[in-house]
Amino acid sequence: MLGSPILSLSCPSGENRLRINVPGFKPIGSEERLSFGSGGEVEALVADVRGDRRLGGVSAVGAVPANLAALLGGPVSASYGAQTSGPHPPVPEALVGSFVAACRGKALAETPRAGLPERPVSPCRVQDGRELAAQRLRAVGTEPFWGARIEGRCVTYSHPEDQQGTRVWTRFTPIPHGGVWSGALGGRQFELRTRAAPGCSDGMSDKTYPVAVELLVHGERRNGCAEPM
């Protein structure tokens, strides 16, 4: 546990999980990702959008990260929506070592309890405190060329000038035979819609796809196709 009351980390006994609490953060009903780390090492945990009545502020949980020591290896910061905490003074190396050893000891020794997932769940796949069952999709479009990787509520949008892609945190709404992902990119509305459409053509090849896509980005509407990843 970090010694400062402005940010704390713990490994709840028997849960195989890491918990972070930042009393100074205010709950945001639409934000379910709380990130923390040091330097270039960052980990995103699933935040309780209702806030933490016992500890105050906002708490988030996730599987014990394999790089926990690196996450605590320097000045530690946390972020939640537009709220930030830190960087705070580095945790003493000896304390980091004992904390990591204790967390890993619990992770190896404990059997996950009934009701808890036996695998780490990406924050992208959690919305309103529940794991999304939405299928992972890869979308492509032309005129202009664009692409998207869809996992849960995260859409990574790419184009020739941004081939790595930019992740957009959206709200997913299921609709009959498809879904809608709504968010913002560069301060403007971002919306991706899918619908079942066997035989959808990307306009570049003879390949067909099972899903049609409509994309609203930068004020423009674009069309494309998608398939499961």
Could you describe the 3D structure shown?
With 229 residues, the chain is mainly beta. The protein folds into 2 domains: 8-106, no CATH class; 123-228. The protein is 9% helix and 50% strand. It is built from 2 helices and 18 strands. It has a 9-stranded antiparallel β-sheet with strand order 13-12-11-10-18-17-16-15-14, with no helix packed on it. The protein has a 7-stranded antiparallel β-sheet with strand order 1-2-5-4-3-6-7. A two-stranded antiparallel ribbon has the order 8-9. A hairpin with a 4-residue loop joins β10 and β11 (146-151). The radius of gyration is 20 Å and the shape is elongated. The two termini are 39 Å apart. Mean pLDDT is 82; it is low at 106-119.
| Alpha-carbon distance between the two ends | 39 Å
Name the helix and strand elements from N-terminus to C-terminus, one letter apiece.
Answer: EEEEEHEEHEEEEEEEEEEE
| Beta-strand residue fraction | over 45%
User: Uncertain runs with pLDDT below 50, 5 residues or more?
Assistant: 106-119
The number of helical elements comes to 2
Structural class: mainly beta
Q: How does the major sheet shape up?
A: 9 strands, antiparallel
Compute the gyration radius: what is it? 20 Å
Strand order of the biggest β-sheet: 13-12-11-10-18-17-16-15-14
Helix fraction, binned, reads under 10%
Strand runs, count: 18
Shape: elongated
